[in-house]
Each structure stands twice: as structure tokens, then as C-alpha cells.
Amino acid sequence: MTELLRLDGVACIRGDRLVFEGLSLALGRGEALWLRGPNGAGKSSLIRLAAGLLRPAAGTVTRRERIALIDEAAALDTELPLRKALDFWARVDTVDGPAVTRAMDDMALASLAEVPVSMLSTGQRKRAAMARVIASCAPIWLLDEPANGMDDAAQARLVAGIAKHRANGGAVLLASHFALGISDLAEIDMGAFV
Ligand SMILES: Nc1ncnc2c1ncn2[C@@H]1O[C@H](COP(=O)(O)OP(=O)(O)OP(=O)(O)O)[C@@H](O)[C@H]1O
């Protein structure tokens, strides 16, 4: 198995509180891992550690490939029409226009291409954030509550997108309150590390 992401003996301190410690995980090509646990268990913190946005208080984080991240902020320019906002990130990620078109199709966003991001609904913004992740072509997806605000049809597209990514050799680290119906999903109960 080719490991794309590895955490060894990681501890996380937020403010002056130890959120978790002694946490290790490895994520290989085609694998998905669900971080579950109650509010405050540290699911979002672990996603941010994996992304390199937080420094571990102990242990090591190793990323062997590019990452794409969804968290509470969609990171799309709210002033731009959706297509242009996604094209901006495509240039940053050095991917081509067809990748953006395919990602928009995957998340059923084609009809919203000219709509400013600021006018999208909550669920549409989540779909747009997911399209950005898909279009990035990054092998490691770090998804923090990606289904929040999505209706059933959007969730089904999210699950299909994750399956396609894994089939193409990608890996997914998912923080979520529920399993989303993803098959062959490993899990870590973050409550066990508090
Ligand atoms: N910027 C911050 N400064 C200080 N403490 C923080 C910060 N962000 C989060 N925390 C604390 O870290 C702990 C873990 O928070 P985190 O958001 O990682 O949990 P979570 O499992 O994702 O929770 P939820 O299910 O509510 O989204 C909480 O006690 C939270 O109050």
C-alpha cells in the first residue's frame, strides 16, 4: 500500500486544553477514514493538523501528496460568478478548464455557473466547495463536515464523488457526525482520545 498521509503519536492543544494525544493513523491510496465523535472531540482540529494549518503539540504529520481541504469556509470569492471563482482555484492548483467543468457536472452546478457565489444557498455553496476539491485533482482529500447543509441528492453526489476519487487512487479523511453511507469506510472514534 502506498501511504499518502500518516500521523504518528500526534497530540493537539487548542488554547490551553489538551484535545487529544497519542493519535496515529495511515491513509493509503483508495482508502477512506471517518473521524467520528462528539462535539469538541477534535475532529476539525485533526483535519487542520493533517492539512498543516495547525502544528501538533507532539508527534509527526507526513503528507506524501497534494491535499484539498473543505472546512467551514468555502474559500470561494463571494463577488465572483461561481465558474470564475472555481477557475481562480484551478489556476492556483494548475489544473485545466475541463477539470472544472467535470467537477461542476459531478456536483450538478452547471446551471449556476454565472451566479455570484454570494447568492448561492448554503447547500449550493457546499456543493461548490466540493467541486473545488474535485477539480483540484489533489490525491488527498481532507473533508470537514462536507455534507452539512446538503440535501439528499447533493449527498448522493458527494458519496459518488468520494467513490470515484478512491477508485482513481485517491484517499479521503472525513470528519462528520454521520457516516454518509460510504462503503468500505475505516473509522476512528475521536472520543476515545479525549
Ligand atoms: N481556535 C481555537 N482556540 C482554542 N480552542 C479551540 C479553537 N478551536 C477549537 N478549539 C477547542 O478545541 C476542541 C476541539 O474542537 P474541534 O472543533 O476540533 O472539535 P470537533 O470534534 O470538530 O467538534 P464539532 O463536532 O462540534 O465540530 C474544543 O474544545 C474547542 O473548544
Automatic annotation (TrEMBL):
Key word Translocase present: yes
MF-aspect GO terms: ATP binding
InterPro entries: AAA+_ATPase (IPR003593), ABC_transporter-like_ATP-bd (IPR003439), ABC_transptr_haem_export_CcmA (IPR005895), P-loop_NTPase (IPR027417)
SUPFAM superfamilies reported for this sequence: P-loop containing nucleoside triphosphate hydrolases
Keywords from the named record: ATP-binding, Cytochrome c-type biogenesis, Membrane, Nucleotide-binding, Translocase, Transport
Transmembrane segments: none
Domain named ABC transporter: residues: 5-194
Cited SMART domains: AAA
PANTHER family: ABC TRANSPORTER I FAMILY MEMBER 1 (PTHR43499:SF1)
Protein name: Heme ABC exporter ATP-binding protein CcmA
Organism field: Sphingopyxis soli
Gene assigned in the entry: ccmA
